[in-house]
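Handout, section B. The chain below has 179 residues.
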Amino acid sequence: MKTIFLTSYIAGTTRQLADFIQKNQINSKNILFIPTAGNIESYTGYIDEGKAALQQLGFQLELLDIASADTQQCHQAFAAAEIICIAGGNTFYLLQQLKSKNLDQLLVRRLAQGCIYIGESAGAIIRAADIEYSSMMDDSSLAPELDNYAGLNVIDCYPLPRLYRGTFCRFGTANLCEV
């Protein structure tokens, strides 16, 4: 069973995340927190707010910037994690960094093995089949080594962040994408 919480803004959906934790009987208190998508953004306050919200819920965070960590360190951290949280930022840059270290398919496998996943904005969008639509929000030129826009293809919708509400729309329909 896949246990996934996707949001456009962690700090704005703390109550929903607490409900998700309770509903899914999540007892682990350790989160592998990936802030990498924010590396090339001018504003990253939402990352600190998300970390604070998770800590307020009682989680201990292990921070891992996959852009600066070596491949072996990343693979070991992903393999050991019970919960992986990927914060928001530039979706193209995030996917480029994941693919450069072969972490994209490792994430898919970890989810299939029962790892819990929390994705914020870019961390949610990468779960779709393709991320090209996020060019409405993100600059793809900031990921010059990304040779295709294939996402992880774990969800059957295309999350479109609406930061003012902390929710997503299904791309192309009016329904909320609640996965």
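Note. Residues 45-56 form the longest helix (12 residues). Compare this with the example in section A.
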